[in-house]
UniProtKB/TrEMBL annotation:
The keyword Hydrolase applies. It comes from Noviherbaspirillum suwonense. This is Adenine deaminase. Gene3D superfamilies: Metal-dependent hydrolases (3.20.20.140). The record marks 222 as: Important for catalytic activity. It is an enzyme of class 3 (hydrolase). Catalyzes the hydrolytic deamination of adenine to hypoxanthine. Plays an important role in the purine salvage pathway and in nitrogen catabolism.
Length: 338
């Protein structure tokens, strides 16, 4: 990749649509929060913790990710974590970000829902004031927990309905198909919430079908396994269902062996509205620009692909049509002069 293309990709305006705020907790912040809250960690040092980030699959990552999140206790902790991510996003020229949070990871430990959403949301408000960075929240249900627990979480969330725009489905995919949450998503749909779900990351293409047909999601998170099914691939392209692809995550969790084997180019060539995102940047080796650069360094991606990826990121965002058109114009202007 030329230096010019790398600079172009780094500085182009972009939206991020798939990142878990708990996955932005850097080891240094985990240690700082542990100390602030008097929590003893089973790791001697930051380096020791970082060494534990050697994952073999999704579950091996999730075990460490949930352990890391246990240092979050106060509203200020949630604020500090979110603010640290927003600074990184701003530095990567992210103009709009849709952030996942996992309330059940915290409410299960006795941390109140208002503390979680209050701290995260206050940071979003400050980023809007400070940089004009637009950010919204998507509440994720943990799919390894029950339907009843998801309904209980939705109930707890309703007094805060003004602070989140949609719901998603994350955690252990295999054995927890989307249809387990069909009734929860039906209720969320009635409430006017946007709907997304992780599907086809480790799970089979069937999970992408059921996310679309039983949950009625508007985007698929990951979805990279769709290419195993040509009928599904054609449908995603025809219906322009966006995929929020997370390349470095896919390598760390061994969905693909090497970044050179990543299928984003095939997805784009098939006409799918793929986007590039960081998933859990503190755990997978980088923020959104690191994901773009890793792809552009390893695959024959061009300036035109960069343009399409930037456009796709805003086109798939849950924002009003006027704001969307303004962002898309900004991308066009950037590429007209860069
Ligand atoms: N990549 C991922 N897949 C499923 N659940 C997650 N929670 C955080 N990151 C996740
Ligand atoms: Zn994810």
């Amino acid at each position: 990749m030329t230096e010019a293309l790398s600079d172009l990709v780094r500085s182009m305006p972009k939206a991020e649509l798939h990142m878990h705020i708990e996955g932005s907790l850097e080891p240094e912040l985990i240690f700082a929060l542990a100390e602030r809250n008097g929590v003893t960690l089973p790791y001697a040092s930051v380096e020791d913790l970082r060494r534990a980030y050697a994952f073999t699959d999704l579950q091996s990552f999730l075990d460490i990710y949930y352990a890391g999140a246990s240092v979050l206790q106060t509203e200020r902790d949630f604020y500090d974590m979110t603010w640290a991510y927003l600074e990184r996003a701003h530095a990567d020229n992210v103009l709009h970000t849709e952030i996942f949070f996992d309330p059940q990871t915290h409410t299960e430990r006795g941390i109140g829902f208002p503390i979680v959403i209050g701290g995260i949301h206050r940071a979003l408000t400050d980023a809007q004031k400070e940089w004009g960075l637009s950010a919204s929240l998507i509440l994720c249900f943990l799919r390894h927990l029950s339907e009843a627990e998801a309904f209980a979480t939705l109930e707890e969330a309703m007094p805060h309905r003004d602070k989140f725009i949609g719901v998603g489905l994350d955690s252990s995919e295999r054995g927890n198909p989307p249809e387990k949450f069909e009734r929860v998503f039906a209720r969320c749909r009635e409430l006017g919430l946007h709907l997304v779900a992780h599907a086809g990351e480790e799970g089979p293409p069937e999970y992408i079908y059921t996310a679309l047909d039983k949950l009625h999601v508007e985007r698929i998170d990951h979805g990279v396994r769709c290419l195993e099914d040509p009928v599904l691939t054609a449908r995603l392209a025809r219906e322009q269902v966006a995929l929020t692809v997370c390349p470095l995550s896919n390598i760390k969790l061994r969905v693909f062996d090497r970044i050179h084997d990543h299928n984003i180019l095939e997805l784009l060539d098939a006409g799918i509205a793929a986007t590039v995102n960081s998933d859990d940047p503190a755990y997978f080796g980088g923020y959104v620009n690191d994901n773009y650069v890793a792809l552009f360094e390893s695959l024959p991606l061009t300036r035109d692909h960069a343009y399409r990826l930037a456009r796709n990121s805003f086109a798939a965002a849950f924002i009003d049509e006027e704001a969307k058109a303004a962002y898309l114009r900004q991308v066009d202007d950037y590429f007209a002069t860069a």
